[in-house]
């Protein structure tokens, strides 16, 4: 029996004009999202290479490592263009100094206005807006529509159990819609290969999980709207119901969650934190000049080793202040970070009322474009900063930082012959450590699980509602 | 010599959740080869009776049996023996006449019918040949009714239940429909149909059950009606001028 019903369900959906139109639109958007993503990736990579080349040639034009303004760049990642998350909102360039706080400068590589306009059209967006609407359009009248056309009574006048009818409905509509959706997704994946986007094995696994999550998100809306269809007599009413839920899920809950969290948890503004830091640093400056004055007054023998003594004194001073400042900054940052984390936790917990938000959180975690990307990146930078400071120490004999270099005219000639161009390839390579596949999966596991759970919940809900559905 | 009726109601009573008594101890039986008309105005309880016979609605009291099987006790077995034509016959607009017929035939247990067999039934109900492979989208109500009847016929069930089958049909279509009913009767099917149309009831019924306000006021055979004016009888009954 279920085979007959299932077959009818598949045929009924696929042969409808509604399907032809909506599926066509969904397919175009999926393919377009891959295309735009690939183009953005290529563009970003080109800009990335160019910026690195400029940095290298700047370094090569100098003769003293102390003069170098070394910049590092975030490398574009293939998955980040499919699920952009926060990538476009945090800086891409950082000038690395051996000491002090590093900040991300918000310069975009991508200046092609066309693709900037379409940047929102990533796979993530398509799933959230298009898949969920697609599901609702086919779910809202799945049950009460058949009642209105009299076919439900006609089916049930045969020796068919209600369980068979509703199971074939749920499975049939899922299959009839998901299998076709896989086609444009597959085309998108082939495009990734065709355009030569360097996807690693890990990238593929993560992309597969994003797609799986997208289909789960689709399933949630399908099961939910079928459940509503089995709970409300008229299909026009269930359409309205489903649409309202969709609007809440896509628009209201995610925005509302952020607003509520901002109200509930107070986080000081970044400007305020910066001001505090500036004040502290200025205080240090004053102290430092005082100390230096004391040194100059106390150590008055200007022999050959004096300049070395002065450098050593400054180094030790720098070190001490650096340490003090680092501690103070760390405390401030940590404090801010804790409050921010707390606020984010609130926002995410609340937004998880929306299935599309759950998907978005999972997808961003899978593509490593979640809100902690900046945090992770800064950690990578700090690690690199130490490496860079060590490199400079080897090259210049000083740990860098604020230096007043005193030269005596007699030493000039000796230094002259050392003035060779710098070799930029000597610079330590900056590489983001990123997350391992295991870390990525465990970061998204709970949300993927939640989506699966919602599928089951609404599936059972639709099933139970239909057993009690008044077919008259 | 009375046989076991194919469609049998015994003391059927339905009290809706709101306390409204839509059926009040209604009893009747339909023999093979008999057309039984439930005649009554809007709200008389005809659809309620039919819904109970198809298991769409549980009764409050009494039994509804098809082919000797209690619909409430064993609906899946009872439904094997009944074909139904609903008052709304939109069917599947994206399917052709034949695809609609094919789906419901297979649900009704007819698994291996050929295209020719489907065509033959569609021809039998008077659907134009050129419409067989057309989607139902553009069909008129009369054409859809014909496909609906074809669905009821193809199941070859001993009992056929029709709810207001001729309402909304033009006279020609209603007339064609009527001759189909008589054809089915000649095959020995037990047919239960509801109508509020006295003329139609008189034309087609072997037995007429007059219903009003949930009560079966009287059951008259064709023979008994021969000498009476059904319209007058009906009005007298529902106005309580004749003791039931
Ligand atoms: N679900 C329901 N709840 C309460 N009353 C109902 C319900 N369905 C029908 N009725 C009432 O039961 C009576 C019989 O209805 P119905 O069987 O549809 O009549 P008919 O088909 O003869 O026009 C009517 O008075 C109607 O208002
Ligand atoms: Mg009725």
What report would you give on this structure?
The complex is a heterodimer of chains A (472) and B (244). Chain A has 472 residues and is mostly helical. Chain A has one domain (1-408, 424-472). Helices cover 71% and strands 2% of the residues of chain A. Chain A contains 16 helices and 2 strands. In chain A, strands 1-2 form a two-stranded antiparallel ribbon. In chain A, helix 1 packs across helix 8 (162-194), helix 5 runs parallel beside helix 9 (201-229) and helix 8 (162-194) runs antiparallel to helix 9. Chain B is an alpha/beta fold and 244 residues long. Chain B has 2 domains: 1-81 and 159-244, Rossmann fold; 91-156. Helices cover 34% and strands 25% of the residues of chain B. Chain B has a 6-stranded mixed beta sheet with strand order 6-7-8-3-9-10, sandwiched between helices. Chain B has a 4-stranded antiparallel beta sheet with strand order 2-1-4-5. The radius of gyration of chain B is 18 Å and the shape is globular. The model of chain B has no long low-confidence stretch (mean pLDDT 91). The interface between A and B is medium-sized, with 24 and 33 residues. The complex binds adenosine-5'-diphosphate (ADP) and magnesium ion. Magnesium ion binds next to helix 1 of chain B. Adenosine-5'-diphosphate is lined by residues 16, 18, 20, 22, 40, 42-48 of chain B.
């Amino acid at each position: 029996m279920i085979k007959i019903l299932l077959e009818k369900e598949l045929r009924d959906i696929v042969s409808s004009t509604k399907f032809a139109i909506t599926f066509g639109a969904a397919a175009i958007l999926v393919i377009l999202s891959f295309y735009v993503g690939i183009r953005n990736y290529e563009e970003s990579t080109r800009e990335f290479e160019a910026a690195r080349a400029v940095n290298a040639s700047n370094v090569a034009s100098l003769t003293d490592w102390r003069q170098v303004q070394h910049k590092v760049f975030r490398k574009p990642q293939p998955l980040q263009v499919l699920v952009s998350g926060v990538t476009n909102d945090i800086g891409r360039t950082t000038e690395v100094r051996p000491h002090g706080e590093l900040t991300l400068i918000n310069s975009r590589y991508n200046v092609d206005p066309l693709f900037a306009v379409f940047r929102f059209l990533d796979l993530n967006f398509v799933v959230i807006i298009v898949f969920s609407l697609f599901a609702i359009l086919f779910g809202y009248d799945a049950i009460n529509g058949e009642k209105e056309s009299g076919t439900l009574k006609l089916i049930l006048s045969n020796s068919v159990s209600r369980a068979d009818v509703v199971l074939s409905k749920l499975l049939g509509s899922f299959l009839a819609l998901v299998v076709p959706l896989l086609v444009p997704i597959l085309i998108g994946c082939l495009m990734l290969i065709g355009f030569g986007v360097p996807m690693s094995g890990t990238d593929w696994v993560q992309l597969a999980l994003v797609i799986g999550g997208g289909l789960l998100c689709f399933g949630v809306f399908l099961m939910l709207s079928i459940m509503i269809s089995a709970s409300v007599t008229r299909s026009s009413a269930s359409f309205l119901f489903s649409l309202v839920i969709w609007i809440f899920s896509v628009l209201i809950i995610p925005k509302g969650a952020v607003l509520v969290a901002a109200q509930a948890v107070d986080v000081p503004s970044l400007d305020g934190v910066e001001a505090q830091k500036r004040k502290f640093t200025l205080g240090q400056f004053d102290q430092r000049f005082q100390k230096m004055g004391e040194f100059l007054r106390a150590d008055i023998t200007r022999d050959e080793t004096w300049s070395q003594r002065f450098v050593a004194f400054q180094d030790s001073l720098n070190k001490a202040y650096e340490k003090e400042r680092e501690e103070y900054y760390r405390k401030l940052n940590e404090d801010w970070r804790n409050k921010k984390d707390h606020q984010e936790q609130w926002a995410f917990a609340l937004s998880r009322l929306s299935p599309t938000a759950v998907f978005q959180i999972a997808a961003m975690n899978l593509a490593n474009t979640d809100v902690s990307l900046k945090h992770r990146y800064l950690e990578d930078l700090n690690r690199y900063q130490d490496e860079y400071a060590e490199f400079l120490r080897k090259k210049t004999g000083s740990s860098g930082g604020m230096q007043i270099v005193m030269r005596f005219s007699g030493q000039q000639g000796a230094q002259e012959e050392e003035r060779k161009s710098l070799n930029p390839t000597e610079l330590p390579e900056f590489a983001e450590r990123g997350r391992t596949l295991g870390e990525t999966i465990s970061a998204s596991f709970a949300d993927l699980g939640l989506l699966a759970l919602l599928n089951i919940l609404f599936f059972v809900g639709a099933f139970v509602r239909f057993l009690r559905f008044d077919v008259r | 010599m009375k046989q076991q009726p194919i469609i049998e109601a015994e003391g059927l009573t339905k009290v809706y959740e709101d306390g409204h008594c839509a059926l009040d101890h209604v009893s009747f039986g339909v023999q093979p080869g008999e057309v039984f008309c439930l005649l009554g105005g809007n709200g008389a309880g005809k659809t309620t009776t039919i819904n109970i016979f198809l298991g769409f609605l549980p009764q409050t009291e009494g039994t509804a049996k098809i082919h000797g099987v209690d619909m409430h006790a064993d609906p899946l077995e009872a439904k094997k023996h009944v074909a139904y034509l609903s008052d709304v016959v939109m069917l599947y607009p994206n399917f052709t006449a034949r695809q609609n017929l094919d789906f419901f035939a297979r649900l009704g247990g007819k698994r291996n019918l050929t295209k020719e067999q489907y065509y033959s039934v569609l021809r039998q109900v008077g659907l134009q040949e050129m419409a067989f492979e057309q989607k139902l989208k553009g069909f008129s109500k009369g054409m859809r009714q014909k496909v609906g009847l074809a669905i009821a016929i193809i199941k070859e069930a001993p009992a056929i239940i029709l709810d207001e089958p001729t309402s909304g049909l033009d006279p020609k279509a209603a007339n064609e429909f009527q001759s189909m009913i008589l054809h089915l009767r000649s095959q020995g099917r037990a047919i239960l149909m509801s109508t509020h149309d006295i003329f139609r009831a008189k034309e087609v019924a072997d037995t007429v059950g007059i219903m009003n306000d949930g009560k079966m006021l009287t059951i008259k055979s064709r023979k008994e009606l021969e000498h009476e004016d059904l319209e007058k009888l009906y009005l007298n009954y529902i106005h309580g001028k004749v003791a039931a």
